[in-house]
Amino acid sequence: MSEETITLNVTRFRPGQDSEPVLQSYTIPYRKDWVVLDALNHIKDWVDQTLSYRWSCRMGVCGSCGMMVNGEPKLTCSAFLREYYPNPVTVEPLVNFPVMRDLVVDMSDFMDKLKSVKPWLIREEEKPVSEGEYLQSPAQLGVYKQFSLCINCMLCYAACPVYGLEPDFIGPAALALAHRYNEDSRDQGKEQRREVIASNEGTWDCTFVGECSVVCPKHVDPAAAIQRLKVDNTKSWIKSLLLPKGGRA
Amino acid sequence: MRNIKNFEALWWGLFSAGGVVAAFLVPIHIILSGLGAPLGWLEDSPQVYQLWPVRLYLFVLIALPLFHCAHRIYHTLPEIGLKVISKPLAVLCYGGSLVGTLVTVWVVASL
User: Fold this and answer.
1) pLDDT of residue B4
2) ipTM of this complex
């Protein structure tokens, strides 16, 4: 019996060699327990060592191997070949990002945006270590836990049509993380994040398409986080109109 | 920080409230006034429209969805390539909903 095979059409872009990205076909053995990342590793190991792509954990935790699989943003370590077999699989770099080489995209815009929302615990004044840890109840953890599960895979940025049209948009993952820290009972940095969050490039550019939440492999639901931030912005805006000093002492 | 100048919160607030009205009240109202009254399930009396709570209800029912509509259209048009004229579009969309609101006030007050 002849061996079953599957064809992968993979984007190649070698700076200095290719003027624009082109698709290259590889026909490789088909294994029903392989994911797309296994197929790429097979190509890299046995067929074409020049292929470049990012990966690390191969178990949906590190967020490195996000690519467009048949036009959909997916973690290639979680996309089984059997979902596509016997049809060919097209693997392209995440859309909405500049391509550096083959399947590797430039993440620097995302990293800058992530930093702009200060995704860390901010305290007005740190208490001395001798006073112990900042305690949190399970209910307080439950308020933000879902939004803390983001692995920065950027699938939501590839899925977001607004980010595609408005490159200045802070975007789903960074806003979901901003919301995660705003809702953390140990955090006091909401006001420091407000300027970025309440700007047009922050929450207001979002038109609630919701694709970010559809493609999120960790079920973070960034669209819901952004909606909650919008409600919060609106409440704060009304307060700033009605109360002296915007309701803040 | 006082973000008093960012009117996006106002437009989104009205959009959001209008969305709730359009999703929950408008279908019920269509069933009641479009089917219930003509089919005789309920009695439609002109006196009802003299009551101020009814006038207020009609105002909310008509005016808020106008802002929902304006905001949705305004944010959709740049996506089909009309970003360059976004300022006149804002005037047209939000201005239209404001005019519509004034007309609604006039209509419900003169019922």
Assistant:
1) 44
2) 0.78
| Same domain assignment for residues A89 and A123 | no
Q: What is the pLDDT of residue A247?
A: 58
Closest by Cβ to A204, choosing from B8, B76, B79? B8
* CATH number (domain holding residue A35): 3.10.20.30
Q: Could you tell me the CA-to-CA distances from A102 to A10, A58, A94, A109, B105 in Å, in that order?
A: 8, 19, 11, 19, 60
CA atoms within 13 A on the CB side of B89: 17
User: Inter-axis angle of helices B8-20 and B52-76, to 10 degrees?
Assistant: 120
pLDDT in tens, B50-76: 899 999 999 999 999 999 999 999 988
SS3 content of chain A, % helix, strand, coil (to 5): 40, 15, 45
Q: Are residues A210 and A115 in the same domain?
A: yes
Band (pLDDT 50/70/90 cuts) for residue A14 is very high
Is A235 found in the same domain as A115? Answer: yes
- Chain B residue closest to A243 (CA)? B2
Residues of A in contact with B76 (CB under 8 A): 207
Q: Between chains, do A161 and B13 touch, taking CB under 8 Å as contact? A: no
Q: Which domain holds residue A44?
A: 5-105
Yes or no: is domain B8-109 CATH 1.20.1300.10? yes
Note the pTM of the prediction, 2 decimals.
0.89
Where are chain B's structural domains?
8-109
Residues A128-145 pLDDT 10s: 999 999 999 999 999 999
